[in-house]
Amino acid sequence: MTADSTTPSYVLRYFDIVGLAETSRMLLTAAKAEWTEEHPEWPQEKPNQPFGRLPVLVEKNGAEDGSDFILSESGSIERYLARTFKFFPTDLKQAARQEELRDQQADVTDAFFSQLHLVGEAKKERRGEFDIMLDKIAEIHTTLLRKNGDCGHLFGEELSYADMSVYAFYKMFILYVVTHDADIAPVVKGKITPEILNLIRAVESDPLLEEHVAKKGSFMPHVLSE
Ligand SMILES: N[C@@H](CCC(=O)N[C@@H](CS)C(=O)NCC(=O)O)C(=O)O
Predict the structure, then answer these.
(1) How many whole angstroms separate alpha carbon 202 and alpha carbon 159?
(2) CATH hierarchy code of domain 9-84
(3) What's the whole-model pTM score?
(4) Residue 193 Cα, ligand 1 centroid: separation in angstroms?
(5) Nearest atom in ligand 1 to 77's CA
(6) Burial of 56 (0-12, 13-18, 19+ CB in 10 A)
(7) So where are the chain's domains?
(8) How confident is the model at residue 6 (pLDDT cuts 50, 70, 90)?
(9) Which residues' Cβ are closer than 6 Å to ligand 1?
(10) Which of 29, 47, 55, 189 is the most buried (most CB within 10 A)?
(11) Per residue in 197-206, pLDDT tens?
């Protein structure tokens, strides 16, 4: 999207980590939107967020009355941006497939965090559930990629919302979740099949995301490191 006086501009509020805002960062960059990132002081800024949590997207003057359009919830923000910038198929069923994948990934992430502070048998049980979910999602990613000709895209031949969301999912585990549990990185790396690696490569080499990789660094060396 080329900026002019009618083009909306955005502020994405989140912590300076690879976490729940990574896909939105990628969408905004790939769309060539006018946007900036804000890292609010925490917890001082907590009461100023609609639901007290981040990420929050602010679309300047985007509301019907001309005030800012302010949106919480990482999934809602992603979908809003993906639809706005046409990274979603117009076909409702095809779009639903991409949403399904994203929401399943969120469940896997939640399953990881739900076992993190448990101990003993309870932890073992929940951790086992997470391991099964992680295996399953990596298998599904791999199958979809194979079905699509192993071109590095999950659906079709171009960069999609789902591609960015899957890339961000693995990146979050290997670069951020690892700060909560050092042992998780090798586990997740072990699930990255050649097909998933190809997706990571395709996403990073897409010209639309050149700026994102230049700003945030390549994820590839972290995936390939022992
Ligand atoms: N369901 C929400 C979860 C948001 C969330 O958990 N945000 C965390 C950061 S990843 C947060 O704001 N933590 C600070 C706090 O709760 O005070 C989403 O997907 O956006």
Answers:
(1) 8
(2) 3.40.30.10
(3) 0.96
(4) 30
(5) 20
(6) buried
(7) 9-84, 92-224
(8) low
(9) 19-20, 43, 46, 53-55, 73-75
(10) 55
(11) 999 999 999 9
